[in-house]
Known about the structure:
Helices cover 45% and strands 10% of the residues. It is of the alpha+beta class and 210 residues long. A four-stranded antiparallel beta sheet has the order 1-2-3-4. Helix 3 (131-139) packs across helix 4 and helix 5 packs across helix 6 (181-209). The longest helix has 29 residues, at 181-209. Residues 11-157 form the UBC core domain.
Amino acid sequence: QYSNVENLSPQTIRQVMKELQDMETTPPEGIKVLINESDVTDIQALIDGPAGTPYAVGVFRVKLTLSKDFPQTPPKAYFLTKIFHPNVAANGEICVNTLKKDWKPDLGIKHILLTIKCLLIVPNPESALNEEAGKMLLEHYEDYSQRARMMTEIHAQPAKCGAVAAAAAASDAKDDDGPSTKKHAGLDKKLQDKKKEKLLKEKKRMLKRL
């Protein structure tokens, strides 16, 4: 993993660290930053899929890569979680005007993450990096929504998603003979694996049908 720390000015590094710490203390709604103490330029965050969108049940991991000219030049942004979205390329790169022609050096990390979250609510098929998703969004919204939801269910389920784990644990509680936390941890893991397997089978079935 290539680090940009030595290319950034100490002032920029301090500014970025401060922003990340502020966001850790008072996180924007539905966004959790993951601070990498050893490399400030490796900025990652978890974004909850906004309610009312095909991404609603997912949690998406995004990564911002700061260039050596940051904040004069915008960072590059990527989805590390696979997603079906008009403005996200196959390699996860995100296309949004805020990170291109509308960039201003004082926008900051929080603004970028909020913009990415907004993109999940209002995709922009005009600047599609995934042409298939852009076309589907405009011409067959139902199909687009179903496909995006299926991708979310397969790829964007966090390992320790409280609600999913709790629901799964509840449905499986009959196999559990004591509330030992260790056992529960193992159980959740097994359930996640089972769930993944089932989802993959369903996905294969769906793809055959498509």
